[in-house]
Design a protein that fits this description.
Layout lengths: L9 H10 L3 H10 L8 H13 L3 H11 L7 H10 L3 H10 L7 H13 L5 H22 L7 H10 L29 H15 L1 H16 L12 E5 L2 E8 L6 H18 L6 E6 L6 H10 L3 E6 L2 E3 L8
Parallel strand pairs: 2-3, 3-4
Antiparallel strand pairs: 1-2, 4-5
Helix pairs in contact: 1-2, 1-3, 2-4, 4-5, 4-6, 6-7, 7-8, 8-10
């Protein structure tokens, strides 16, 4: 929709955008202006009800995907209604975005067959994507059922130290109460994250990896860098040069190259997904890498900082950048 709102203050601009039913644009305005839902609560409710009444469930879900849940309509409810409205192409897109492969398995299969019967060009792509997604989710469920993978004191420790929801992807509650628009543009439904989650969880359960993360957190706290973390990123903090993303890897002589490849992929993906284009990237090894060329490659070619655990502290060519 084209309309001139440039001369308005941000609250009035967002209100007009909502009254024009341009939900995504209005939420972007609110995010850029650090506005609260309470500032436009009436217009927001009217906009969402209009979209709902016109079966524009995909628009609401796209807003959720980019900016967090902003109404009382749940994701499963909207997906179900989109399917009932026979908007199968949009249903597949949103079901994949929100990782609804297990909850809507029958509806997804029906929608893919609908594409196949019409010989639509993206039918095979959807079948492949969802088959991999379902496979990965089943692996996740199996890994979650392993008793040794439930580490209660680790969860409690994180709950005590993480006070800034910088990497929160979607707000838990969805009531129209006074709250900030969540800084999304970040989603754990991304295909890369989904494909890596099962392996990542298994690695997190590894005692060596857990120990390095713990020592790293203590080290960064000691030098007043206030580290935080979430289920995907090992550690994040602000250093003098700006935001920094840390990926911890436990290595042996035999798995060193594989672990480095995984770490590089993860770091670049996380920086992109969380919208931190200026963040420095760090690989934290459980010990000194065995191959010197790997260090040179990371530092000089990939521009990734390198440190490793030595006793109960850290050393390496990039350590001075943290002080």
């Amino acid at each position: 929709m084209k309309y001139d709102t440039d001369k308005l203050n941000l609250i009035d601009r967002a209100k007009i955008q909502l009254l024009k039913h341009d939900l995504v644009k209005a939420l972007r305005t609110m995010k850029n202006g650090d506005l609260e839902i309470a500032d436009v609560i009436n217009e927001l409710a009217i906009c969402i009800e209009w979209l709902h009444s016109h079966n524009a469930f995909g628009t609401i879900l796209s807003a959720y995907y980019k900016y967090g849940i902003c109404s009382d309509y749940s994701i499963p409810y909207l997906l179900q209604n989109m399917f009932k409205a026979k908007d199968y192409p949009s249903f597949l897109k949103q079901a994949y975005r929100f990782d609804a492969s297990l909850e809507f398995e029958k509806e997804i299969e029906f929608s893919i067959k609908w594409h196949e019967e019409r010989k639509l060009p993206d039918a095979s792509a959807w079948r492949y994507k969802f088959s991999k997604l379902i496979e990965t989710n089943k692996l996740q469920n199996e890994s979650d059922s392993i008793k040794d993978m439930v580490v209660l004191d680790e969860v409690e420790e994180i709950a005590q130290t993480v006070t800034v929801p910088l990497l929160t992807l979607v707000p838990i509650g969805c009531n129209l109460t006074k709250k900030k628009i969540i800084d999304v543009g970040k989603t754990e439904s991304d295909p890369y994250i989904i494909s890596r989650t099962a392996k990542y969880k298994m690695e997190k359960a590894n005692q060596i990896h857990k120990n390095v993360v713990s020592v790293l957190k203590n080290f960064l706290n000691e030098i007043m860098l206030n580290p935080i973390e979430n289920k995907l990123i090992d550690t994040f903090c602000e250093i003098k040069a700006g935001p920094a993303i840390f990926e911890v890897k436990s290595i042996t002589e035999s798995n060193e190259r594989d672990q480095i490849r995984h770490a590089i992929s993860q770091l670049y993906e996380y920086r992109f997904l969380y919208g931190l284009s200026n963040a420095s990237l760090w690989i934290v090894f459980s010990e000194k890498p065995y191959s010197k060329w790997c260090i040179d490659y990371l530092l000089n070619d990939r521009k990734i900082n390198v440190i490793w655990l030595q006793g109960e502290t850290f050393t390496g060519p990039s350590i001075d950048l943290l002080h």
